[in-house]
# Entry
Amino acid sequence: MRTIFVLFVSTILLLNVIVSCQGGPLRKKFYRDTCPKAEDIVNDVTSKHVARNPAVAAQLLRMHFHDCFVRGCDGSVLIDSTPNNSAERDAIPNQTLLGFDVIDDIKKQVEKACPGVVSCADILALAARDSVSFSFDKPMWEVLTGRRDGRISIEVEALTQIPSPFMNFTALKQNFAAKGLTVHDLVVLSGGHTIGVSHCAGFTNRLFNFTGKGDQDPTLDPKYAAFLKTKCRNPSDTTTVVDMDPKSAEDFDSHYYKILLQNKGLFQSDAALLTNKGSKNIVNELLNQEKFFTEFAQSMKRMGAVEVLAGTAGEIRKKCNVIN
# Structure
């Protein structure tokens, strides 16, 4: 009888550990008592911005992604540089980020309701979800809350830790593994490229100088490459933008994987997903849109929990762009 009791207790403890690992220090409705309307305010303000400008969805999703890959999801990407410190926001991968005004607007409204309670890191995570979910009129993934804001933001860390569009499969796999994310997460989260645009500088090496000999990437569909050259005539063009998912750049769907298999993935990092048998199999599975939505929800939940600050760590910033 004692043995059965010990096994029962051990099982309960193991289940508790598993649940804890999945959610970490984050939980549902973290602000239920301290700021009951927090998530409603985030959703309302976000929705108003997306209604005016649908591009906001891709902007906030990308910003959340870039935030989580540097020091975890701590809102450090929102911090301004100072005379004594160059922050993540000024790193090359982040110089084209947009949507900071949306986060500032949300923070302003949340602060009116509950001063000093809701973190900028949670606001960004919620707003990214709510912006993508706007056209579906329902949450597309669950966002656990309880993140605290980081006090450190360093430009060089963003430069070295955010996945590059020029990475091959091995580099991408290592980059994601460093954050506790799998190859499956890599392929699923790459599906975020189904919305939004890219500046020419993110892919023109594939058009004009792929191996340093003035050549074109042979894995890129020739007709698509010719089209891209009509958009990006200058390899150093830093102003022109191109849809990442041709003919479906404003629709959050699984179309990205369809064009990827047609060799029309815009970035070298997109094409890299087809160079590994395992990741290519996942690409084929995600052609099923419901499968993509389900898997994206799970991977976003995992990414949103990367290296988060909680408890007494970090702070709750009064303004998202300035450390208290």
Q: What stands out?
A: The domain at 38-161 is CATH 1.10.520.10 (Peroxidase; domain 1). Confidence is low (pLDDT under 50) at residues 1-23. The chain has two domains: 38-161, 169-303. Strands lie at 197-199, 241-243.
